[in-house]
Amino acid sequence: MRWAAPKLLSFIRGEGADLSLNFAFVYTMEAHASDKWPMKWAVEWPEPKTLEERIACAERCDKDLGWSPHVAMFVDGMCNDFCRTFSAWPTGCYVLSPARQLLFVGEPERQEVFFDVDKLFEFLRSFPSRRPAAKQQSLLARRLLPVEA
Q1: Of 69, 110, 121, 142, which is most buried by a Cβ count within 10 Å?
Q2: Radius of gyration from C-alpha coordinates of the chain
Q3: pLDDT digits (tens, 9 = 90+) for 14-33
Q4: DSSP 8-state code for residue 61
Q5: Considering its fold, how many domains does the chain have in total?
């Protein structure tokens, strides 16, 4: 995710804003937690054991990647409802309509570790009614679920 973040953020700040799109990043469980499946990457954290720890990881990720204020941040609850509902891939993305219909799933091709951001951009550029009078909005989300109370 980290290596694609600058390209994603550039699109979000530029074309994404011009297309009247809303973007969200939802933090879920660690894909390769250092205490479960270490990959020896530059950034590797242990799997959070509490919602507070997961929120702290999400905030650190937001700060490191510079998403805010251009990208809304969400955290999947400790029951991992989003991951189970969407069979979520750690480095995937989802495009939802304003009515929350799933329109696009970006997941890594075989032998890749990240989805093809150019395919995502191509889809978003072709999305109908980009600038209607009522300002219709789409939502890009890696993981979308409200924080558990």
Answers
A1: 142
A2: 15
A3: 998 888 888 888 888 766 66
A4: H
A5: 1
User: Which residue's structure tokens are 């469980």?
Assistant: 29
Token pair listed for 98: 């304003």
Our separate counts of H helices and E strands in the chain read: 5, 5
- Three-state SS letters, 12-39: HHHHHHHCCCEEEEEECCCCCCCCCCCC
Quote the tokens at residue 136: 């219709």
Structure tokens at 54: 């997961």
Q: Please tell me the pTM assigned to this model.
A: 0.71
CATH (domain of 24): 3.40.30.10
User: How many residues belong to the chain?
Assistant: 149
Q: Residues 91, 143: contact at Cβ < 8 Å? A: no
